[in-house]
Specification:
single chain; 432 residues; 21 strands; 7-stranded mixed β-sheet; alpha+beta; Rossmann fold; 5-stranded mixed beta barrel; OB fold (Dihydrolipoamide Acetyltransferase, E2P)
C-alpha cells in the first residue's frame, strides 16, 4: 500500500504530465538549433521544424546569434517553446567568459557572456525593431551611448532574503534566473560598485547572525546605496550625488538613476534636446529631486518641475537653492494635472517626461497633448512602452526628431532611451 507521501508525489507527477503540452516537443526533449537573433528580453531566438510545423520559434536564455546550440525544452506555448541551454556546439565570435561565477543562475544579468561592443549593437537594433513593430515607424536609431564603466557601476542594490529557517543560513541575493521566488545567494555583485561590495559582506554577516538568533519572522529586502565612496543601508538616509557640477540631494529610498558614471552625459543630452527647438520654458514632469529640471535650467527662462512625492519635491527645492538656481520652481501633484494651471505658452514650452516603466497613463497623455508643447523629450527605461505611447504623439501632430539609447545598465538587457518629438502639425484626430 502506498504511503500518503508517496501517493501525493505520484499524483503531483501525473498532474504535471497532464498539464504539460507536449506539442511540438516532449517534456525535456533535447534538440539542436541555430540562434538567429536576440529578443528585447535578452533571450536567444532560434527556429526549427518539428511535428509538421515549419520555423517553430524556440527561446533560449544565454544563446547568442550565430551559435549552434543543444537545448532542453521545458515548456511549449501556442506559438513558441522555451528551452534551457545545454551545450554551445559552435560559439559566436562575440561570446566572452562572464566575470561573475553566478552568471546564468542569478537573474540580474543577461549579457555578461556577450562582448560589450556587441551588447550596444544589439540594444540599438532592438530599439529600432520596437520602433517599427510597436509604433509603425522606420527611423534611424543613433548608436547607443555606452557606459564609461562596464562593471562596478551600480550605486544601489536591493538584495533579498526569504523567511529564515532554523536548519540553514538564509540565501541573501537576487531571484534565480527564470523563477519568481527562488533566491540565489550572492556574496558579491560584479556590476555593483566596489564600496557596495565591501559593505555587502558586513551586511550579510549581520543578517545571518540575527537570523541565527531568531530575529526574523519573515524575509526582507535590504538596501545598499553608495555616493562618494560612502555606503548607507538606511532607507531614510540623505544621499548627495554630483551630476555635471551640481550637487543633488535625495533620500536613499527615492528613485534616482543608479549609474553615476554616465549621468552627466545623459542629463546634458536631455538638456540639449529640450532646448534645440527654441523653447524658452521647460516643464519636467515626474521630476523627482530635480535631475533634469536643474541640469537643464540654465538653457531656459523658467522651469517648473512636478512630482507626486512630497519628499522629492522638498529636496528639489532645496537642491535649486543650494546650487544657486533661481529660475526653477517645483510643485507636488499628479503629473496628469499639471497643465491646467500652467502659465507657459505652449508654443514656447518644452516638456521632459520620464515616467515609470509602465509608461504614461491615459489621463496624463490626454492633458499633455491638449497642452501641445512645441517639444517633448521622452525618457524611458522601457522602450516597449515608450514606443506604444509614441503612436499617440504621432497622431497628435508630432514628428520624431531623434532616438538616442543610453546604456545605463551594462551586462543586462535594460537600457534608457530618449526620443525627441517636435510639434509640426495639427492633430489628425482626438489625442487618444
Amino acid at each position: 500500500m502506498l504511503s500518503i507521501k508517496t501517493f501525493l508525489c505520484v499524483l503531483c507527477i501525473l498532474v504535471a504530465k497532464k498539464k504539460f503540452n507536449d506539442r511540438p516537443f516532449a517534456y525535456h526533449e533535447e534538440i539542436e538549433l541555430e540562434i538567429s537573433t536576440l529578443t528585447n528580453l535578452g533571450l536567444g531566438l532560434g527556429r526549427v521544424s518539428a511535428a509538421g510545423v515549419e520555423n517553430w520559434v524556440v527561446m533560449v536564455p544565454f544563446g547568442l546569434p550565430g551559435e549552434r546550440v543543444r537545448v532542453r525544452v521545458y515548456r511549449n506555448h501556442k506559438n513558441f517553446s522555451e528551452a534551457d541551454l545545454i551545450e554551445v556546439r559552435q560559439p559566436a565570435p562575440q561570446r566572452v567568459a562572464p566575470r561573475c561565477a553566478l552568471f546564468g543562475r542569478c537573474g540580474g544579468c543577461q549579457y555578461q557572456h556577450l562582448a560589450y561592443a556587441a551588447q550596444l549593437g544589439w540594444k540599438r537594433r532592438q530599439v529600432a525593431e520596437l520602433l517599427e513593430h510597436l509604433a509603425g515607424v522606420r527611423f534611424e536609431v543613433s548608436p547607443v551611448i555606452g557606459s564609461p564603466r562596464e562593471f562596478g557601476y551600480r550605486s544601489k542594490i536591493t538584495p533579498h532574503f526569504a523567511t529564515p529557517r532554523a536548519d540553514r543560513e538564509p540565501a541573501i541575493g537576487f531571484l534565480r534566473q527564470g523563477t519568481r521566488f527562488d533566491i540565489v545567494d550572492v556574496p558579491r555583485c560584479e556590476i555593483a560598485t566596489d564600496a557596495i561590495n565591501e559593505k555587502l559582506a558586513a551586511v550579510r554577516a549581520e543578517v545571518r547572525a540575527e537570523a541565527a538568533r531568531g530575529g526574523f519572522s519573515r524575509g526582507a529586502t535590504l538596501l545598499l546605496r553608495e555616493a562618494g565612496g560612502v555606503v548607507t543601508t538606511d532607507y531614510d538616509a540623505v544621499i548627495t550625488e554630483n551630476v555635471g557640477g551640481l550637487k543633488l540631494r535625495f533620500l536613499a529610498r527615492d528613485f534616482f538613476q543608479n549609474n553615476p558614471s554616465i549621468l552627466p552625459d545623459f542629463a546634458a543630452y536631455v538638456r540639449r534636446q529640450a532646448a534645440a527647438g527654441g523653447a524658452r520654458f521647460l516643464v519636467d514632469a515626474y521630476c523627482g529631486s530635480g535631475l533634469f529640471a536643474l541640469t537643464a535650467a540654465g538653457a531656459f527662462e523658467r522651469v517648473t518641475g512636478v512630482e507626486i512625492s512630497e519628499t522629492s519635491v522638498g529636496f528639489a527645492r532645496e537642491n535649486a537653492v543650494a546650487n544657486g538656481i533661481a529660475n526653477a520652481a517645483f510643485q507636488t501633484g499628479e503629473a496628469g494635472t499639471i497643465f491646467a494651471g500652467l502659465d507657459f505658452p505652449p508654443a514656447g514650452t518644452a516638456v521632459v517626461i520620464d515616467p515609470p516603466r509602465k509608461g504614461c497613463d491615459e489621463n496624463f497623455l490626454q492633458q499633455l497633448l491638449a497642452f501641445a508643447p512645441c517639444t517633448v523629450v521622452y525618457v524611458s527605461c522601457d522602450p516597449a512602452t515608450q514606443m506604444r505611447d509614441l503612436r499617440h504623439f504621432l497622431a497628435a501632430g508630432y514628428s520624431l526628431r531623434a532616438v538616442q539609447p543610453f546604456d545605463l545598465f551594462p551586462q543586462t538587457r535594460h537600457l534608457e532611451c530618449v526620443i525627441t518629438l517636435q510639434r509640426t502639425a495639427a492633430p489628425a484626430g482626438p489625442p487618444l
